[in-house]
## 1
Amino acid sequence: MPKPVIFLAFANDRQDNARYLRNLPFELDGIRKSLEKAQDSKLCEIIYEPNCSIEKIIDTFQKYQEQIVVFHYGGHADGYQLLLETLSAETLSVVEDPDSGSNSVAHAEGLVALFAKQKSLKLVFFNGCTTEQQAQELADKSNLAVIGTSSEIEDGIATNLAIRFYKGLGINLTIGKAWEDALIELKIRQGSENLRGLYRKEAKEIPQKQPWELFSKDKTALDWRLNMIRKYSVGNIYKLLNASFNDESLQIFCQINFEDVHNNFGTGQSRNQKLMALIDYTKRKQEVEKLLDLVAEENPAQFEQFKPYFD
């Protein structure tokens, strides 16, 4: 069963040492760790490109059509473009600049068109400087939640904010709640008076507000969370388990794989009650796909018979 994809794209300026963002590797690693539990629970798959190019963005969206639910960009940007990296001549036959480590520009007009047409996409996070204009344009032309920035942001603050946001998303908070918590942590760390610390030292004008903003013309987009991706067909899952286990084999299966469920089985419980207890437990713990994978290994014929298990 194909899993929803969270696509993390990062690009640095390898030509100008003064503009090199040293925190980008920490941001990538921190976001990946924040989403590990969700990935282990098979709620999502994490795809990441630490040296992302225009070609890699297009290739990834083509490969994972109707699977990508979140796109995150970390790197240099402005209201009209993202700064990406250029593939070397060995990996691409035609490039604007064949020198390895060079940069290329991805224009907002094309990016907005690409993201707006993605049926599965729910969130775009532009964690780069002054991305507000393209974030607002994308939100206006789609039903997406889009995060952008109004000015030149401080590298370390941007890293911490993104990691906190994805920690929330990874434990199944809604986009809106995860974002609210990320801003609360920002205020706890920085205070409401130290706005200067949120912006890069090079920033000439310091707005009297924090630089990040969450845009969405459809406010229900902020209610999206990872476990909304899968809508379970409880009836089909029950039929599968009922056909796969008698009372004794169900006891053994749960003792080996779901010990908490097994320990709560009562002496007076019917097999039907035990089956529903197992289903309810795996739904609460976000382990439905783990359950299905285990049953598919033991009873492949029954597994095929009662599909689909997700609506």
## 2
Amino acid sequence: MTVLRPDAAPAGGADLGASAGLCDDLARASLALARRFAAGGTLWCVSPSSTFHAHHVAVEFVHPVIMGTRALPAVVVPAGADLVASLRATVRPGDMVVAVAGAAEAEVAEAMRRGPAWGTETVWIGAGPRPADGAADHVLWLDLDDPLVASELFVRIYHLLWELTHVCFEHTGLLRPDTCEEEVCITCSDEGRTAEVVSVDDLGEALVRTAEGREHIDTTLIDPPRPGDLVLVHAGSAIASLEEGR
């Protein structure tokens, strides 16, 4: 398989190598997607302000143009839909969400930050001012202000994302998830998990959604949360709200 070079200049003179670290970010995102697809995940494609990109991303994965590459499940979230509500109702743990959008698109930011609670891998493609650190699992960003040039380069980025994902499929040893060999691992343990509140009763018990599924937790240690709030859970209790200061 021939892999396009991220630093090859497209028409107009702009090049993807202008954004520091973009090549490494693309490689990491592609490996993460390959692992999720290999485990049976579905890719959800969103671009509220430019639905062309969402449809184009989905087409790349569903209808491969290279002989011998597999068709991968990808779905477009319709334009005009409540993005967070639509994804909340459809994504499953192990799925992926790819967004092509600017950092100022609040509904995209809200969807991205819920990835840990929903158990989804999140990829955010955009240009201009960057989103906050940790806004998504993978941020593939261009330091460009020209929206027309940026839009052209978005196409190149997600073409590369698709092709590098298939490169990972050719190396099956890469598709095994990272495992921890330690007897007690902070990362794997219940040190603090992100959860989304589904409902709260009058006694302070909440039903929440996490990457492992739904569970009941105690919320008396924090201010009363509302449905849709994100909280940090440890040992069956909410220990912090992730909504404070927002």
